[in-house]
Amino acid sequence: xxxxxxxxxxxxxxxxxxxxxxxxxxxxxxxxxxxxxxxxxxxxxxxxxxxxxxxxxxxxxxxxxxxxxxxxxxxxxxxxxxxxxxxxxxxxxxxxxxxxxxxxxxxxxxxxxxxxxxxxxxxxxxxxxxxxxxxxxxxxxxxxxxxxxxxxxxxxxxxxxxxxxxxxxxxxxxxxxxxxxxxxxxxxxxxxxxxxxxxxxxxxxxxxxxxxxxxxxxxxxxxxxxxxxxxxxxxxxxxxxxxxxxxxxxxxxxxxxxxxxxxxxxxxxxxxxxxxxxxx
Length: 280
Fold this sequence. Notes:
Shape: globular
Order of helices and strands: EEHEHEEEEEHHEHHEEEEHEEEE
């Protein structure tokens, strides 16, 4: 197979063609995709229908998979999260977030496939934490380097939404016990490229522990507004069969919630990463 890669902007995003993902990929293709992922942070593939077992097997080519503690999964395939949202189950990903940063070792990446789409709307945006960090002034960069932030599962998975039935409450309580708040560096060093990037997100970051509450709130508000600037983002308008593959280590994403009451179903495989660190 011969990969063709079309970058979307200097900061983030590229369309990839010349590969079929569902049938399995060889080592050379895997390595080429990983190299493209490091450079562009999120890759988009069109016309790639895929079943849950095929998506699981594809994601396994890039590492061990994470089973989500709260979200439902595809029947018989616990590694595939089912994000099924509509008027009956409103979207909850319409904020800028990096997946599962409540873990000690958050996800390296994720592969998302479009299974059922609304007639209009439902786009997803991604932002580059690397581009956002590099655009900060040097005094801001120096202040942030070496700070640590607390990431809390309950910020995105509150009891009122995810513990409504006895069965849900048992699962939610176990997730809360298994996943206490974690500290991660505010500026993370990418473990492969060595580049620095913002590693705080609205979905899970509760506070910067070295600052007072007032200071922490002010700094986080500034950083959330900064990373969402259009210069650091790419927006994908989904078509049935599309797949996105992103580097979760220094990106954030936002699933727009403009399609309700229509239904949107996405399948996600989440690839385990390593413990975040900052290296000066």
